[in-house]
Amino acid sequence: MLAFVLRRLFQAALVMLAVAFVAFSLFNYVGDPVNLMLGQDATPEQKKELRESLGLDQPDYVQFAVFVKNAVKGEFGLSLKQGRLVSTLIKERLPATLELALVAGGLALIGGLLMGVYTALRRDSWLSQFLLTVSLIGVSLPNFLIGILLILVFAVTLQWLPSYGRGDVTAIGWWTTGFLTTGGLRALVLPAVTLSLFPMTLIMRLVRSEMLEVLRTDYIKFARARGLTNRAVHFGHALKNTLVPVMTITGLQLGSIIAFAIVTETVFQWPGMGFLFIQSVQFADIPVMAAYLVLISFVFVSINLIVDLLYYVVDPRLRFERAAGAH
User: Fold this and answer.
1) In this structure, is residue 291 part of a structural domain?
2) What's the whole-model pTM score?
3) How far apart are CA 235 and CA 173, in angstroms?
4) Domain assignment of residue 199, yes or no
5) Residue 234 burial (CB count, 10 A)
6) C-alpha distance from residue 207 to each of 6, 44, 199, 202, 220 (Å)
């Protein structure tokens, strides 16, 4: 087990180094930060002085080593647009994105599992057919269109929920949360539903197909022959063996919720990291773009590592195979 974890950590470190190199390349190939910070009217002496202060006169390998060292500490320099530390900007926007991703991920996971199990066990019911039909809409329509439709219905027509912003938030130290206010909870509903709809329908259809496949296997027939109840067969045997492939897709989707919250945050003007990234792209704010790329990649790598470790908890066959291979 320890060797497996160490190998996965080594692979994750290699991936993060590759991502760090791509992020570092943005500084050299997407505009000149000195010209962006000083403008075209700056004198050569001013540009030279700023280039030396930023360390841009050093060889590329030295600059990359400094970039990796600072990235490990969470430092990405100054925003070219706002003139503030990128780490400070991310700290201000991180709570909004994480809360949105947490709610959307919870809705997607719980809703997808429940609907997937129901549509597998009640294949011929009208509700099952209705959920499958609705899932096609969730998979087919893009997020921005779903968000606009929800705004049109629930914000403009019915006027039940706000159409933009985060609502009222409460500060707990440096963390800001909308969970403790009515306005914050109401503002969270539409973007969370918009962001969760695609992964929810994907998880639902995957759980249904895997559940139907498992229910046809011999060990399920043997469990029924032993006289086990339907609850024990469905949830103690079938669902547990369904979760192994589902975990992989679920982990990737949870990472995608954070990575691709850009569109949803832009539609709802949600003050998160995705909205900050869009603003930085419009201005070519390279430090913010690089920080966002590294942070999102770290989220994906961490989730994949956690999913790999969860395989050992859910599927004992993996532990047995690795133990047999060691002997």
Assistant:
1) no
2) 0.79
3) 42
4) yes
5) 20
6) 31, 62, 12, 9, 17
> Encoding tokens for residue 164?
């933009």
Task: State how far the Cα of 100 lies from the Cα of 89, in Å rounded to an integer.
Answer: 18
- 43 with 116, same domain: the answer is no
Place of tokens 């997607």: 108
Q: To which residue do tokens 């639902």 refer? A: 204
Distance in angstroms (rounded) separating the CA atoms of residues 120 and 55: 60
**Quick one: residue 260, left, alpha or beta (phi over 0 = left, psi -120 to 50 = alpha)?**
alpha
Q: How many CB atoms lie within 10 A of CB 138?
A: 17
d(CA 279, CA 256): 20
DSSP 3-state assignment of 172?
A: strand
Q: Return d(Cα 52, Cα 41) in angstroms, integer.
A: 19
pLDDT in tens, 143-152: 888 889 999 9
Domain that holds residue 246: 92-283
Compute the C-alpha angle 260/261/265, nearest 5°. 140
Q: Report which DSSP code applies to 225.
A: H
Residue 103 domain flag: yes
CA distances from 74 to 68, 104, 283, 297, 307 (A): 10, 26, 22, 14, 25
- Answer yes or no: do 256 and 198 share one domain: yes
Distances (CA, A) of 43 to 38, 50, 53, 81: 9, 11, 16, 20
Positive or negative CA dihedral for 33, 76, 299, 166?
negative
pLDDT tens digits, 208-239: 888 888 777 777 777 777 777 767 777 766 77
